[in-house]
């Protein structure tokens, strides 16, 4: 007797498992982040005016054809100031998060793979550093060595490294117990091979998500330090510095105060939207 399969389980030629689509919010967030990344690279060359050009008659000038984003407290074009400040806000934050994430993740993988006393000592040292607030560490380092871009990158990178270490170690401890890692150990593979070829590819997604969140935290910390006058120093300026130096124009509703704050907000919101979008794609796509 001829039997037929239910329509729901009849195999369809060429049918593939549907993949999760990136939500519109995630696409928008990634576009905003990509835009500011491009401005961090090409912004200084695209600036329509030299940041040193001052016009005493245009102090806190409103938005106009000559000043598309207004003018600051010295009559300088704010559009040019924003574009010139993008490398210091985005670039310094990106360099610091690379130090934190790469350093913390590498140390965590080697500690988890090595195990024993090495893992114990490193974990306890990280716990000690975690007890020191990142802002307090930054203030101490800046007071000791002064405020410069290398000091900011290293200080903030080292300050956020323990958090990256803890996240990566929790992942690495689970991964290194898997059968394929044990098989690599049985084959006599080196520690470097095991960590880079067997462990890292299987913990990359959570590490990248943590990378994005840590970048967001560092942008806000840098902006806060610059607002206090402890970040990027004149004549250079990041967006936090632009808010601080134009704060006296707040009572006049000057765009020189609002525009850099909007730039910071769009970058941080864009990072959040991009992270949420990619996380949602992973859940829907399996």
Automatic annotation (TrEMBL):
* Membrane topology classification: Multi-pass membrane protein
Q: Which InterPro entries match?
A: BP-dependent_transpt_permease (IPR050366), MetI-like (IPR000515), MetI-like_sf (IPR035906)
Enumerate the Pfam families for this protein.
Answer: BPD_transp_1
User: Membrane-spanning residues where?
Assistant: 21-46, 58-75, 87-116, 136-160, 211-233, 253-275
At the top level of its lineage, which domain of life is listed?
Bacteria
Give its localization. Cell membrane
Q: Which residues form a coiled coil?
A: none
Concerning Gene3D superfamilies, the annotation shows: MetI-like
Q: Which CDD domains match?
A: TM_PBP2 (cd06261)
Residue limits of the ABC transmembrane type-1 domain? 86-275
Q: Does the keyword Nucleotidyltransferase apply?
A: no
UniProt keywords (A-Z) are:
Cell membrane, Membrane, Transmembrane, Transmembrane helix, Transport
Q: Provide the family line.
A: Belongs to the binding-protein-dependent transport system permease family.
| Protein name in the entry | ABC transporter permease
Q: From which organism does this entry originate? A: Telluria antibiotica
């Amino acid at each position: 007797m001829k039997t037929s399969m239910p329509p729901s389980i009849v195999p369809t030629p060429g049918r593939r498992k549907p993949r999760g689509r990136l939500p519109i919010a995630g696409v928008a967030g990634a576009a905003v982040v990509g835009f500011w990344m491009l401005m961090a690279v090409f912004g200084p060359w695209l600036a329509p005016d030299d940041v040193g050009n001052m016009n005493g008659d245009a102090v806190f000038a409103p938005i106009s054809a000559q000043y598309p984003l207004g003018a600051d407290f010295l009559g300088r074009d704010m559009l040019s100031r924003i574009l010139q400040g993008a490398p210091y806000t985005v670039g310094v934050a990106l360099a610091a998060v690379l130090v934190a994430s790469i350093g913390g993740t590498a140390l965590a993988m080697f500690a988890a793979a090595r195990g024993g006393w090495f893992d114990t000592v490193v974990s306890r040292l990280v716990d000690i550093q975690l007890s020191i607030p990142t802002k307090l560490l930054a203030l101490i380092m800046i007071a000791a060595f002064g405020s410069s871009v290398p000091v900011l990158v290293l200080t903030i990178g080292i300050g956020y490294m323990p958090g990256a270490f803890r996240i990566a170690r929790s992942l690495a401890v689970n991964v290194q117990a898997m059968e394929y890692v044990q098989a690599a150990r049985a084959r006599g593979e080196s520690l470097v091979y095991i960590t880079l070829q067997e462990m890292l590819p299987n913990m990359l997604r959570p590490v990248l998500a943590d990378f994005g969140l840590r970048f967001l935290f560092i942008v806000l910390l840098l902006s806060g330090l610059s607002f206090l006058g402890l970040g990027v120093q004149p004549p250079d300026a990041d967006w936090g510095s632009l808010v601080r130096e134009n704060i006296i124009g707040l009572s006049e509703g000057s765009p020189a105060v609002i525009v850099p704050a909007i730039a910071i907000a769009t970058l941080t919101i864009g990072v959040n939207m991009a992270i949420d979008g990619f996380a949602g794609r992973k859940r829907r796509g399996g």
